[in-house]
Amino acid sequence: MEKRLISSYDEINDTFVGKVDGENGYCADYGISDGIYLAVNNCNLPASVFVPNASKVFNTSKSVLESSNVRIDIVCNEIFLSFTMSIEDLKIYSTTCRNRFGIPDIKYEIDSNI
Fold first, then answer.
1. Which of 7, 18, 43, 58 has the fewest other C-beta atoms within 10 Å?
2. How many angstroms separate the CA atoms of 111 and 99, rounded?
3. 79 — phi, psi (to 5°)?
């Protein structure tokens, strides 16, 4: 499933926010990795991503995070959730965790260029 990503990076506060276009609000917010929070809608589908201390979490420069060319891939089954973030077609972060969140089996691409 492909969705349009609206992303913003606040350099002063070092905070990254990525929101699925058309989503308003969220039902739950889960910490999926150290410093990465995934909000889901009422259908348990990803609605937004929030990352405080983003340059440290992603181990990249603030100038890279200012790019508007961002893609987030979320692949999930009943056991695992995989999260990958790319900027300018370069993978900057990837993690896999247990799916304790009730997110259904999905292959979700949230891209600023859709």
1. 43
2. 22
3. -110, -45
Q: Which helix (H) or strand (E) holds 93?
A: strand 90-98
From 73, 26, 17, select the one nearest 45 (Cα to Cα). 26
Number of helices followed by number of strands (H, E) in the chain: 2, 9
Is the CB of residue 27 less than 8 Å from the CB of residue 3? no
What's the CA gap between 24 and 113, in Å, rounded? 20
Structure tokens at 36: 């990465």
pLDDT value of residue 86:
96
Contact 78, 99 (CB under 8 A): yes
Question: pLDDT tens digit string along 66-100?
Answer: 999 999 999 999 999 999 999 999 999 999 999 99
